[in-house]
Amino acid sequence: GSQFIGFTLALISIRGSQESAAAVSIMVPLLALGLPLLDVATTIARRAWSHRSEGPVSIGGLVRRIAQADRKHLHHNLLDLGLRPRRAVLTLYLISALFALSGYLSLLRNGLVLAGLIFLLSIGSVAFIKLLLTEGRQRALEGARAEPASSPETLSH
């Protein structure tokens, strides 16, 4: 699978370099891999800035913080929103297809504006998922604070 994907991306970038500017030929494969690249970039940024209140950090400490595993990737966010694994994967496929479509449309002469709109739709869908998750977590915290603590006497009756 990965060899086929690499081969396809190489062909797309070669075709793009023959038909248009060099920037487009580089951007098409990046757009085709937009979702994994976006997930990696946001994960690195989130982990790097998550403990900035702790003061200065050494390079080694920053690398260890970035390399530390967590459950805040996009697919975990979808599962936390209540989607079943199959639906979460289908959602990720749809977002990846939008990124790939924007890359393909950017190769067309009149498709650059449409490619930009689809790219913004792709980014917006990821942001929407993150926003839903953040809002859901805030509601859960507010609900937990509103519930009175159970005492042993009320549990026995």
Count of β-strands:
0
Gyration radius (Cα, Å) is 21 Å
**In one word, what is the shape?**
globular
Q: Low-confidence parts, pLDDT < 50 over ≥5 residues?
A: none
End-to-end distance, in Å? 60 Å
* Largest β sheet strand count, sense and barrel closure: none
Helix content: over 70%
Indicate the mean pLDDT.
77
Strand-residue proportion: under 5%
Helix-strand pattern, N to C? HHHHHHHH
Specify the number of helices: 8
User: Based on helices, strands and strand pairing, what is the structural class?
Assistant: mainly alpha
What can you see in these coordinates?
The mean pLDDT is 77. It is built from 8 helices and no strands. It is mainly alpha-helical and 157 residues long. The protein is globular, with a radius of gyration of 21 Å.
Summary tags:
mainly alpha, 8 helices, 157 residues
Short description:
This protein is mostly helical.
Secondary structure topology:
Blueprint: H1 2-19, H2 22-32, H3 34-49, H4 59-67, H5 74-80, H6 85-105, H7 112-146, H8 152-156
